[in-house]
Design brief:
Mean pLDDT: 83
Order of helices and strands: HHHHHHHHHHHHHHHHHHHHHHHH
Low-confidence stretches: 1-21, 541-547
CATH architecture: Up-down Bundle
Number of helices: 24
Number of domains: 1
Radius of gyration: 23 Å
Strand content: under 5%
Helix content: over 70%
CATH class: Mainly Alpha
CATH superfamily: Sodium/glucose cotransporter
Number of strands: 0
Largest sheet: none
Length: about 550
Amino acid sequence: MNVGLNGMTWLFAADMPEFAEIDLPSDARWLLGIVILLYLCALFGLSVFATGKVKTEEDYLVAGRSLPLWLAWGTLIATWFGAATMSGAAQAARDEGLMGVILDPIACSATLIFAGLFFAGPMWRLKLLTCGDLYRRTYGGTAETIGAAIQVPAYFGWIAAQYTALGQMQHIYFGIPLHWAILIACLVTLGYTLIGGMWSVTLTDTLQILIAFFGLIVLALSTYAVVGNGSAWDGFQRIISETAEKTPDHLYLWPVSAGFGAWMVYLGTWATGLFGNIPGQDLQQRVFASNSPRTGQLACIFAGVLYLGFGLIPVTLGFASRITDPGEISGGILPLLAGKYLNKYMAVVFVIAFTSIVVSTATSAVLAPATLLGHNLLGKLKFFKGHGLILERSCVFLVSMGGLVLAYTGQSIMELLDLALSLQLVALFIPLSMAIYGRPKSPVSGIAAMVAGAVVFFVYFGTEYYFTGVVESQGLDLTWDAYLVQQVPMLAGLMPIITFLPSDLWGFLTSILAYNLCQLIYAKQAPINDHIRAEAWETPAATPTIS
């Protein structure tokens, strides 16, 4: 679920998997229906099995902190390796080359490795259930509430996107009306997430990612073989050589002959991808669920390496499509290649693999905000005290229904996700990293970093979004900032400064500035996070100043 602003909107346009290109014969459709039914039964069987492991809230939210490496790795990469990585990366690579996939999979894989090297160990040793717990223990209850309130909405658009994707698949292959198909997708996802919590999600994720990788490898080898006249290796070499010969700019990993603005967008994309996902509940929840800090670290690193490896397969298929289909392509690239180069049985395998990716992403997208909602927001109310497990399951239901409602509206789903994920970078990364690596002198330091970064980002983003819409609706040949200067001439002198950086970098820098300003104001006070650092790094503890 990992995206950024400032021109990286290609990911959203390709987020919805397109199944219509695969023209299955009737017998293959029957086969697909039977396989999907058996597949869902297997998922529910795993969920029922997982129920026996769930006795406490900790079991439900972080699998009792007992996941071995292979399960921690499986659920982590399944959470991140979504439909956008497969479908979106292929289209972006075809259109823009490697510059189009800087965010996903390149920066996202780097995020996992970065998290494993610098955050997984100390975060695990703190024995947290959510990142909100870290904000509460370091900066107090207000920071906990603000952090959770920022994160929870981030997932609703993503959940809605997965429900819509699964609904489209049912509609296209089985003729189920889309509104009913979306409801079925919601209920299926809700069912086995509700039953076993993190244990259920972990077991089903690991199964699904293995199926997804198998389907992706089958499609890649088949396409390479076609391009290479029967040899997959020759086909791969031809793809790279022809790309280098015909469109060499498609193999550049940074802006070439680009101005300052393009470089700032590029750096903003890296910042959002590399740092913005570190506070994400979906990532940290899997670290917390590992059976040791070492397991959490290795799971992140292994997942990052494999994420990049498998994530580059759709990139090469995007390049390959320029050879196999040099004209315009209608629909998703991967389904198009599957329809052309897989037999009906392998096409069924591909659809199941694609479905597995969407389902695994949907379950993780539901559990993460439900955890924050139940544990850090509603759980603070006296009415819910002592009912943690019931509350968490209720929140899974509430979050699922929220995603369902948003899926039915069909409006601004991706824009909501885009906004919320960037808010994690500008508001949450600095307070989290400083709690572990810094020496905050006051709770105000963390709260100010959250609020100031979010406000500056939101004002900039909202202004750009609004005036861009006005310019487009009026058909004007102007940029949004030029139009704003036309309307408010007194801003002419400020616009070069305002547009010097993209919105996410302005928010990020403001968060850093607000934190350090508060540190100067409270410089004479003792650090408030000695107890956190003592637990995170296993050093002798000081008396905590915030509980």
